[in-house]
């Protein structure tokens, strides 16, 4: 195990860097936990709306005005939520948006690996494992950009480690490696329409 230098200035800088990384990790987990909860809640709500819409259609057939209005409201809400879910052809666009966020924030995406599709009744969950190298400020900005994309894409399960030989960037700031997952949803059965053309490391730099 490497022992910290006895130089008080360097020792203080290292300890402050470790403290900052720990604080960032806790803050990001706190900020993105609500986003993951909202994503799960939105998916569950879509399922309920679909079921409610089906029942409302049955009632509307026999001419009940209140059920017809309920059906219209269900459809409005369903359309609004489904607008947030990407179609298969938009996955490539989302990956390019992540690549653009990488350039804007100054981080380096060192790994981007797709995971096995999690198939559901109405929606399939698509996830990628990412590893990102950068300062903790830049990584925080990168995660914030991902979470604010127009379609539902949420980062989660964040872990941060020291960057080893790349511990200091050209600007002199300490750098870390952030590992996390990003998740989005597709309508069930749509993953075969366009995703097969995507490379396994889409958006990741060459080794």
Rounded to the nearest angstrom, the distance between the terminal CA atoms is 28 Å
Tell me the fraction of residues in β-strands, as a range.
Answer: 15-25%
Count of helical stretches:
4
Largest sheet: 4 strands, antiparallel
**Helix share bin:** 40-55%
CATH architecture of the domain at 86-197: 2-Layer Sandwich
DSSP E strands, number: 4
Provide the CATH topology of the domain at 86-197: Alpha-Beta Plaits
CATH class of the domain at 86-197: Alpha Beta
CATH superfamily of the domain at 86-197: Ribosomal protein S6/Translation elongation factor EF1B
Average residue-wise pLDDT:
69
Based on CA atoms alone, the radius of gyration comes out at: 22 Å
Shape: elongated
Strand order of the largest sheet: 1-2-4-3
Structure write-up:
This protein has 207 residues and is α+β, with helices and mostly antiparallel strands. The protein has a domain at 86-197: 2-Layer Sandwich (Alpha-Beta Plaits). It has four helices and four strands, in the order αααββαββ. Strands 1-2-4-3 form a four-stranded antiparallel β-sheet. Strand 1 (108-114) and strand 2 (123-135) form a beta hairpin. The model is unreliable at 1-6 and 192-207 (pLDDT under 50).
Give a quick precis of the structure:
It contains 4 helices and 4 strands, in the order αααββαββ. The protein has 207 residues and is α+β, with helices and mostly antiparallel strands. It is elongated.
Please give the structural blueprint.
Blueprint: H1 8-61, H2 65-82, H3 91-105, E1 108-114, E2 123-135, H4 136-147, E3 154-162, E4 175-187
Antiparallel strand pairs: 1-2, 2-4, 3-4
Helix pairs in contact: 1-2, 1-4, 3-4
């Amino acid at each position: 195990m490497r022992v910290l230098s006895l130089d008080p200035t360097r020792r203080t800088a290292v300890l402050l860097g470790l403290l900052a990384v720990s604080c960032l990790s806790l803050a990001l987990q706190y900020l993105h936990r609500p986003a993951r909860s909202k994503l799960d809640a939105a998916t569950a709500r879509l399922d309920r709306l679909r079921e409610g819409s089906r029942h409302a259609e049955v009632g509307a057939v026999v001419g009940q005005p209140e059920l017809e209005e309920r059906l219209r409201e269900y459809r409005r809400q369903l359309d609004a939520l489904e607008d947030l879910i990407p179609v298969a052809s938009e996955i490539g666009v989302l990956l390019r948006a992540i690549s653009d966020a990488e350039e804007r924030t100054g981080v380096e995406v060192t790994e981007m690996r797709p995971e096995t599709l999690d198939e559901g009744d109405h929606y399939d969950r698509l996830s990628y494992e990412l590893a990102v190298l950068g300062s903790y400020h830049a990584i925080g900005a990168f995660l914030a950009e991902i979470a604010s994309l127009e379609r539902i894409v949420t980062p989660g399960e964040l872990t941060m480690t020291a960057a080893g030989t790349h511990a200091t960037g050209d600007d002199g700031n300490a750098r870390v490696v952030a590992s996390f997952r990003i998740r989005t949803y597709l309508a069930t059965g749509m993953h075969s329409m366009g995703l097969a053309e995507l490379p396994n490391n889409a958006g990741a730099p060459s080794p």
